[in-house]
């Protein structure tokens, strides 16, 4: 399908028409690839995260490959563990897994700042995906110019997730229409773009700038705070000693992006995390990453 910004600009305002009494809820978009999806184990969670969060809600779009029309489906429900790798959703039910991502510690930190407010998270992520159409044949692409057989890719799945989330007028079921107010975007992605060819890695800055601006447009805020996670490398690989062969090029592009975008910040703590496998942080890493993302977003909002 042809990606059209007109489509982006019209689906959010529909939730704000014809209602006099509304409950305003802050919302954050969480997007990216596998280290956004989350490979922490629920069994490793401390008690203050291994729970159902009061006044925190999540819409986790169904993760699907390119060309699949079922991507992005989901429902709103209270946040709890299980929205990591292996989870899925339909228009009627969430099927949780034994994994978690940044959403738990991120939400806990947000509630510390906004203790008397409700928080909403919109999440879409898929393992191995790239923001370059040249890598689409591997695990999927976020490139808006991707064509393929149907033109449906990860970018479309994310838009479907956002559109479906905003379509629900009462996300907490209390009988009062909700007004979702975007306050930030958290983006954790880039490992795949560092894996295949040098040219893909070299294009990462331009591709990152494009996808972030498109996601901001989908939320109707050109200056919406964006925090990206700097990719890191476990350096466990039997063939060449590195998992992400062109990782330094992507890291440079990420640093360049936040240097020139005054409403963007980067989390660099990833270089200190341990790994549960060559590609994904361990449980402690995901817990800390959620906290660091929240802190970086607060700093952007306060300046």
Describe, in short, the structure shown:
With 303 residues, the protein is α/β, with parallel strands linked by helices.
Overview of the structural elements:
With 303 residues, this protein is α/β, with parallel strands linked by helices. The chain has one domain (5-302): 3-Layer(aba) Sandwich (Rossmann fold), CATH 3.40.50. Helices cover 30% and strands 18% of the residues. It has helices spanning 5-11, 34-37, 103-113, 154-167, 198-202, 204-218, 247-260, 283-302, and strands spanning 22-32, 40-41, 56-60, 76-78, 88-89, 94-95, 99-100, 119-125, 177-188, 226-229, 264-267. It has a 7-stranded mixed beta sheet with strand order 4-3-8-1-9-10-11, sandwiched between helices. It is globular. It starts with a helix and ends with a helix. Mean pLDDT is 91; it is low at 4-10 and 13-19.
Low-confidence stretches: 4-10, 13-19
The profile of the biggest β sheet is: 7 strands, mixed
Domain count: the total is 1
Oligomer: single chain
**CATH fold title:** Rossmann fold
How many helical elements? 8
Roughly how much helix do the residues carry, as a percent range?
25-40%
CATH superfamily: SGNH hydrolase
Give the integer mean of the pLDDT values. Answer: 91
